[in-house]
Amino acid sequence: MFSSNVFDYISVLDKAADASWMRHTVLSNNNSNVTTPGYKRQDVAFESELRKALGSCKHESMDAKVSRVKNMSIRPVAYTDYSTLSYRLDGNNVDPDTEPVMLAENQLKYQGLMAAINNEFQNLQTVLK
Q1: What is the pTM of this model?
Q2: 2 occurs within a structural domain
Q3: Which of 7, 96, 103, 118 has a 20 to 30 Å separation from 18 between CA atoms?
């Protein structure tokens, strides 16, 4: 058996897509609770964790960075954002103007990640032909 890094990028893209899906759920929940008194908006942290895991070494190839990251346990973490801040008197801190924009931005990221995963599989199919 030989060792291959064929699925390294797919593994990392899969983790990112899962995090984006989780963020979509959290942002949708924020939109649903925009009028709930005392509700505090939530968000998901993943991109910063992935950035730290990839590292900032300029002398290391992206292939080496991705190979290292695929075995790491990087998980998206939901957190309460601006828990001490409230935009309204009822204690809610969800901004009804920016939340849909964040949801649309996340949706575009998710679609980009899915396109990248599909592209990786198409590349594998091309190689196997």
Answers
A1: 0.81
A2: no
A3: 96
Strand segments, DSSP code E, in the chain are 42-45, 77-80
Domain-embedded: residue 1: no
Please name the residues in contact with 102: beta carbons below 8 A apart, sequence gap of 6 or more.
Answer: 27
Question: Tens digits of per-residue pLDDT, 65-114?
Answer: 777 776 677 788 888 987 777 878 888 999 999 999 999 999 999 999 99
Regarding beta strands 77-80 and 42-45, do their DSSP bridges make them parallel or antiparallel, or are they unpaired?
antiparallel
Distance CA(43)–CA(78), nearest Å, equals 6
Are the C-beta atoms of 108 and 11 separated by less than 8 Å? no
* The two structure tokens encoding residue 42: 């939530």
pLDDT digits (tens, 9 = 90+) for 39-78: 999 999 888 888 877 776 777 777 777 777 766 777 888 8
- Structural domain harbouring 98: 8-128
* Nearest alpha-carbon partner for 75 in 49, 113, 97: 49
